[in-house]
Amino acid sequence: MITVKNLTVKIDNKVILDDISMNIKKGEFVGILGPNGAGKTTLIKTILGLIKPTSGLVYIDNMELDDYMKKKGFYIGYLPQHAIVNWSMPVRVVDAVLIEKVRPFGLFRRYSKEELESVEYWLDMFGVKDKMYSYIRELSGGQQQRVSLARCMIHNPEILILDEPNTAIDVVYNTKMYELLKGLASEKMITIIMVSHDIGAVTKYVDEIMCLNVKLHCHSKTDDVNISTVFKEVYGEDMEIVVHGDGCKNCAINKAEK
Ligand SMILES: Nc1ncnc2c1ncn2[C@@H]1O[C@H](COP(=O)(O)OP(=O)(O)OP(=O)(O)O)[C@@H](O)[C@H]1O
Ligand SMILES: [Mg+2]
Fold first, then answer.
1. Please, what are the domains in the chain?
2. Pocket test for ligand 1, best of 13, 16, 202 (most atoms within 8 A of CB)
3. Which tens digits make up the pLDDT trace of 8-33?
């Protein structure tokens, strides 16, 4: 579904991404890990066509991005690391979720029954259905993040790209969010790329992990990878990994599942 071939990105002559090649299949849930400044956001933006690579190619569904967008329209959901949303605007959650859909008709047209049902469905999925008619400025940071996720999903994307979706989200909801994303990938065949610093949880939920630090240090099935070795290479020797499992009875992640 997403193929990256020998991608190099230089900014001001500094190599940010060095010869990255990868292949992500339809319906795969992929986690990208790596330290601050590793190039994770740059990689995502290059896949989305927001940054032009110095060399290399990106194919989506065997097409160049422009052709894919022309053929499929708005089919990539993207949650940026720093969303450009003015949360102080006097806009209700329902308007914020439908904002791209209403543009040709103006913000205050009446929504169709299907549109409202779809908003309700996705807000419910992300646990904020009760906020549908609240003003966005009245929401907490985590609730705003969940509204942004609903906004990505309203377009039924084939591909969902999330840059640290969990930064403002509490630990209990994080677990639910990961499970939901896992379900979207495996049941609805949505291809998901998620950048996260939440190493323990990422290794638990995703199908494949990519460890990035300028170069792609690994791209493999979660079970196949020797996590300690690769992470020490990517993060440095001081790295200590805590992977959650059935044994850790008191941790918040396992409690949330019960
Ligand atoms: N517009 C830019 N101009 C100059 N340097 C940039 C620009 N964008 C990114 N960089 C540099 O590229 C490198 C990678 O940045 P990037 O944002 O991709 O890292 P990241 O892995 O997403 O980090 P984080 O975990 O902190 O979000 C950094 O060294 C950053 O300073
Ligand atoms: Mg980033």
1. 2-75+157-257 (3.40.50.300), 83-156 (no CATH)
2. 16
3. 999 999 999 999 999 999 999 999 99
